[in-house]
Design brief:
The protein has about 425 residues and is α+β, with helices and mostly antiparallel strands. The chain has twelve helices and 14 strands. The strands form three sheets. A nine-stranded antiparallel β-sheet has the order 4-5-9-8-7-10-13-14-6, covered by helices on one side. The chain is globular and about 65 Å long. It starts with a helix and ends with a helix. The N terminus is likely disordered.
């Protein structure tokens, strides 16, 4: 029996292969609009449909833990990805990972399959690429070759997504010829990476760091809109400059210094005719510098990034890895995190920026075969200290998320920094 498409539209499945070879976490995510019995039924069907759950790798694992969580779905969000329902074992494991005894990025990446109204899409995160120095490109190439065996790996990921989309459409028509077809997207994946997604509805704190949320008021949003038109700037430009101003004001008030500000800008590349077959998301990591003059120039850097990617967004039906190869060969995008993903179908999302402030210990080398110099930690949760500002723009509002390492602020200081950022944005 197949899972009804109406349920699949709001389900997610994730596996976390940790540094401990004997422990595998499987997270089942779902919209709170589904009731508990249907969720449990859907999970049982997922277990039947997913080859990885019956694979030799799973059977040999001593600790295969599953976690399922459901809750209320916010009225203004069509899809809400929910967080772990923490068990004592999972909490203990996270504490172990976050301790100095364990490297939290050893040999990990992630594959995610999202099933929506327009077909199947894939998320592949080759996040840190700490695989004996090989690059993200090599990781992606390895995955595609292991799936298809086709040396033309630059098109293989499109083949995967296209095959899944075809299966989805035929299932919808009730085609009996495809009832036994395997979803091979999990079957040959050799490694995963645990990531933490910032979502506008996230209100819970995780071990080691905290999350704060704030939506701009109507008057604040109108100010941002006016400034954007006045200065012929993008929302990302204003967010970036406000972030720099907030850093300077915070440091001036608290007599502190920032050794390095790392600006990361998500860039969505959607080849025109292949929108639902593959979407490239490149997070450009731009080291800004340690003084105000260097950081002011971040606007020019951001403009250069935007100009570099604008032509890619209009590229008709080009294999996603052609875009990757072209981007990797041209500055200023010399530090990248690569992904192929589905944006969850929220048509109101216009722009996003994720920026980092903090003391980064070291950069992770990814080889010398391309101009990618380093893959950098992209979230505050991966830094010993630091904050991350996430912003999502909608038609009439901007939702802000502040995530920070608990070691960064004293109690109440996180709220003060978020207020400082908003002040810098609207004044």
């Amino acid at each position: 029996m197949r899972v009804p498409l109406s349920i699949w539209d709001k389900l997610g499945l994730r596996f976390d292969f940790t540094d401990d070879p004997n422990t595998i976490f499987c997270e089942f995510q779902a919209s709170g609009a589904l009731d508990k019995p249907r969720l449990e039924k859907s999970w049982r069907e997922i277990q039947k449909r997913t080859p990885l759950l019956n694979s030799k790798l799973i059977k040999e694992s001593k600790n295969f833990l599953t976690h399922m969580y459901w809750g209320e779905c916010s009225s203004d969000s069509p899809i809400t990805w929910l967080q772990y329902e923490d068990s004592q074992e999972l909490e203990s494991h996270r504490n172990h990972i976050s301790s100095k005894q364990v490297d939290p990025v050893r040999g990990l990446c992630e594959l995610f399959v999202a099933i929506g109204k327009d077909g199947f899409s894939l998320l592949l995160l080759a996040h840190h690429a700490a695989f004996d120095g090989i690059s993200c490109v090599a990781v992606l190439k390895s995955l595609c070759e292991s799936y298809s065996g086709d040396p033309n790996w630059d098109e293989s990921l499109f083949h995967i997504a296209n095959n899944l989309k075809v299966e989805h459409q035929q299932d919808k028509r009730g085609d009996s010829n495809h009832k036994g077809k395997k979803n091979r997207s999990f079957e040959y994946l050799p490694f995963f990476h645990k990531v933490t997604r910032i979502h506008r509805t996230v209100t819970t704190n995780r071990p080691g760091y905290s999350v704060l949320n704030r939506s701009l008021s109507q008057s604040e949003f109108e100010i941002v809109t006016t400034r954007r038109k006045t200065y012929n700037a993008t929302v990302n430009d204003l967010l970036l400059l406000a972030f720099n101003r907030a850093i300077d004001m915070w440091n001036a008030s608290n007599k502190t210094e920032t050794n390095l500000t790392l600006i990361t800008m998500p860039i969505n590349l959607r080849p025109g005719r292949s929108r639902y077959m593959g979407i490239g998301n490149f997070t450009a990591a731009v080291p800004i510098g340690s003084n105000l003059n260097d950081r002011v120039n971040s606007k020019q850097l951001l403009s250069a990034i935007t100009a570099q990617t604008s032509s890619f967004k209009a590229t008709p039906a080009s294999p996603i890895f052609n875009l990757i190869n072209e981007i990797l060969s041209r500055p200023p995008l010399v530090n990248l995190i690569l992904a192929v993903y589905n944006p969850l179908g929220n048509k109101y999302v216009h722009s996003a920026i994720l920026s980092n402030l903090g003391h980064l210990q070291e950069l992770i080398p990814v080889g010398t075969s391309s101009k990618v110099n380093h893959i950098l930690f992209s979230t505050a949760g991966r830094m010993p200290r630091g904050v991350a500002i996430g912003a999502i723009g909608y038609d009439s509002s901007i939702d802000l998320t502040l995530r920070y390492r608990n070691a960064q602020f004293e109690k109440g200081d996180g709220e003060m920094f978020l207020d400082l950022f908003v002040d810098a944005l609207v004044t």
